[in-house]
Design a protein that fits this description.
By secondary structure, the protein is α+β, with helices and mostly antiparallel strands. It has 25 helices and 22 strands. The strands form seven sheets. Strands 1, 2, 3, 11, 12, 13 and 14 form a seven-stranded mixed sheet that branches. It has a four-stranded antiparallel sheet with strand order 17-19-20-18, with helices on both faces. Helix 8 packs across helix 9 (about 315-340), helix 23 packs antiparallel against helix 24 and helix 23 (about 630-650) runs parallel beside helix 25. The relative contact order is 0.05.
């Protein structure tokens, strides 16, 4: 068995590519080896800012020999009078076999010539020499570059290749124009701590060899070391390290030999909001803050840098980092004091100088639109007069901090500084909190706004963006969604669901579109249908992917090509969610099976009638005098008794009542179809047929209070 090592030595790679490339090779390398029937004991992928590597243990020296059956020409054309023709001779020659190796076999298309070829396995070294360039070329990422005068693309120039099969260099060359990089056994150690070349004797022991040169190639080990060093350094300062996963991941891909260095800043800067300090330290500098208490955001005047330099120079490194942080914090302090010089409301006129979107005017105009949408939402909800004032005030001020000096310099602080400045301006807690919350959620898994004021202003802001951008005809396509419209729609739906807001989204969309059309009369009449369909798509996705509801049950709740059902889903999102979750529940506990056959059969047959899908009352739609069998009367009596149960189920959203009632009458409906007194629904008498179809239509309609059973697939 043999071991193989491949290492690409590069100039400093972007941190995002380091982790991403490793994950790609973890999928690509095993897959391509399997295609070549090359078994192995283990595959390990390593990545640092200056190298990507893969180590494969337990490879065979060559592929196993294999047999391959090849189908040739029809027997009738390959042999004449028992003698081979030129067709047979040509086939044998092409396959490299003697004539006596040919066999005639019967197939469903007649007799054909076959040959069973024995294909010897190729040397593993030859296969790897072909695979390595493939592994390199298949890597994907952002901002690939060319260097020299060739066409080879990579995030940074490739400077060396180590390719060892055990202790033998595998000859590989990457050509980029006049620049050619050939494989050998020479790698590079740490740029500062071990600048000398590193000669790797054999493929086995790569990790230990590079560690001796002050390079930790194992990414998971670097991450563990960084976390341990940061926590230890914070403890020594009497605090707790504020380690976010995103920062830890990024820093892991910025260094090869981590070394925690503690820096300090002046206590005076602690008068700044903690969010300002952490934004400067974390977002801008990629350093770790130190907290006084892990439960609260209060900071100590220290930060931790993960250096890739010489630990002996830590004091010099810390001093340089401190100068940078001090300057940034001083800027933040200046901006903060300047912004506090006037109340938040005074920034509103300046919003008229900021463009929201070229064809949609300024941010101030957006504020006016979202204020109107917020009032439309308020009109649907039972809110107090005080809450109404808070919502209107928060909607007016929610974007004011965008033109402050602090947010101009640090855009990620939008909303956060708005809350701070609102408090400083004497605004109520409800208004200040809503300014912060209306941006939530900022991404998948993020917190949702918790206050009603924040929820309503957040919905209004996102809905204005959706209506406005859709109004310009700029709909998301494929993966292109520059205005994050899918995320905005998802947020609106999730806020309504989580906060249990009884918002009629269909009405809200209609009113918002009407307001937008009044401003822009040239707006397409398709705007409302487009938005409605877009929200239905998002509801469908959220129910399936986040609520784990089966696709057919989602279809049954939302309806397929059914405007009445579609509108119902948008009118009451809370009911839509409840019905979907309830359907999944009764499928999981097998209750759905008890009613599926009778309701689904009735639904399919009722489609051949003309009863509308809303009618529930049998006394106005069915004529008992036309009954010919007792099963019809029993069916009718059961539906009469079903009416009050269905009405109560609708009013209380207690769909268990409806399912219990449908379960109870299932045997009665079964007798109507298949019992001793069963009937032929499609009777030759049109009146009798219509009467029976109306009976089935009524059952379908009662079931539709829960779902369109015609869309449900049998378990």
């Amino acid at each position: 068995m043999a071991n193989f090592l491949l290492e690409l030595g590069t100039e400093e790679l972007p941190a995002s590519f380091v982790a991403g490339s490793g994950k790609q090779w973890q999928r690509l390398v095993p897959a391509t080896l399997a295609e070549q029937s090359l078994t192995n004991d283990s595959i390990h992928v390593y990545a640092t800012p200056r190298r990507l590597a893969v180590s494969i243990a337990g490879l065979p020296v060559k592929q196993s020999d294999r047999e391959e059956e090849v189908k040739g020409p029809p027997a009738a054309s390959a042999f004449k009078d028992g003698k081979p023709t030129k067709a047979a001779e040509g086939f044998a020659k092409k396959q490299g076999v003697e004539m006596d190796a040919l066999e005639i076999r019967a197939t469903d298309k007649g007799d054909f010539v076959f040959v069973l070829k024995k294909i010897p396995g190729r040397p593993t070294a030859d296969i790897l020499a072909e695979l390595v360039p493939l592994w390199i070329s298949k890597l994907e990422g952002k901002r690939f570059m060319r260097w020299a005068d060739g066409e080879l693309k990579f995030p940074r120039p490739i400077r060396s290749i180590v390719a060892l099969l055990d202790d033998t260099v595998l000859p590989i060359a990457l050509v980029s124009g006049s620049d050619t990089v050939k494989s050998d056994r020479i790698s590079q150690g740490h740029r500062v701590l071990h600048p000398e070349p590193v000669s790797i004797a054999q493929a086995e022991g790569y990790v230990e060899c590079l560690r001796a040169a002050c390079v930790e190639v194992d990414r998971s080990q670097r991450k563990i070391q960084i976390q341990a060093q940061v926590e230890s350094a914070a403890t020594k300062q009497g605090g707790y390290a504020d380690i976010t996963e995103d920062l830890l991941e990024e820093v892991t891909d910025l260094v090869e030999w981590p070394n925690a260095v503690v820096g300090k800043f002046d206590d005076d800067f602690l008068m700044l909001p903690p969010e300002v300090i952490t934004t400067i330290i974390v977002t801008n500098q990629r350093y770790f803050p130190i907290l006084k208490n892990p439960q609260f955001p209060e900071l100590l005047p220290y930060f931790i840098t993960i250096s890739n330099g010489d630990p002996a120079k830590s004091a010099i490194i810390a001093a340089g980092n401190e100068r940078v942080v001090r300057a940034r914090l001083a800027d933040g302090q200046f901006f903060y004091k300047a912004d506090l010089a006037k109340p938040l409301e005074d920034y509103l006129p300046k919003l008229e100088t900021v463009t929201f979107q070229e064809d949609l005017g300024t941010v101030r105009e957006k504020v006016d639109r979202l204020c109107k949408i917020a009032s439309l939402i308020v009109n649907q909800l039972q809110v107090t007069a005080e809450e109404k004032l808070h919502i209107a005030r928060a909607a007016l001020l929610c974007k004011a901090d965008l033109v402050t000096q602090m947010v101009y310099e640090f855009p990620e602080l939008q909303g956060i500084m708005g809350q701070k400045y609102a408090f400083a301006s004497g605004e109520s807690e409800a208004v200040a909190t809503a300014i912060l919350e209306h941006y939530l959620p900022k991404g998948a898994g993020d917190n949702l706004p918790q206050t009603m004021t924040g929820q309503i202003v957040g919905i209004a802001d996102k809905l204005d963006t959706l209506v406005s951008i859709f109004g310009l005809g700029m709909l998301p396509t494929g993966s292109s969604d520059p205005f994050a419209l899918r995320r905005a729609a998802n947020a609106i739906i999730n806020i309504i669901w989580a906060a249990q807001l009884p918002v009629n989204l269909h009405q809200l969309l209609s009113e918002s579109v009407a307001e937008f059309t009044a401003i822009r009369p040239e707006t397409s009449p398709e705007l409302l249908p487009q938005l409605s369909e877009f929200f239905l798509q998002r509801i469908r996705t959220l129910l399936q992917e986040e609520k784990n509801v089966d696709y057919d049950l989602v279809n049954a709740v939302l309806g397929e090509n059914d405007p009445e059902y579609t509108e119902r889903a948008l009118r009451d999102l809370l009911d839509t969610l409840e019905r979907a979750l309830f359907l999944q529940q009764i499928r999981n506990d097998n209750t759905l099976d008890k009613i599926y056959e009778t309701v689904n059969r009735s639904t399919r047959l009722a489609a051949q009638g003309d009863l509308d899908k809303i009618e529930l009352e049998p006394k106005t739609t069915v004529k008992p005098e036309l009954f010919q069998k007792s099963s019809e009367q029993a069916f009718y009596d059961a539906v009469v008794q079903l009416v009050p149960q269905t009405q109560l189920s609708k009013q209380t959203r207690n769909y268990q009542l409806l399912v219990d009632s449908l379960t109870e009458i299932a045997p009665t409906v079964g007798n109507f179809f298949d019992g001793p007194e069963s009937v032929l629904v499609m009777d030759s008498d049109p009146e009798i047929k219509r009467n029976r179809l109306n009976l089935l239509g009524l059952l379908r309609n009662h079931a539709r209070v829960l779902a369109d059973f015609g869309a449900i697939v049998k378990s």
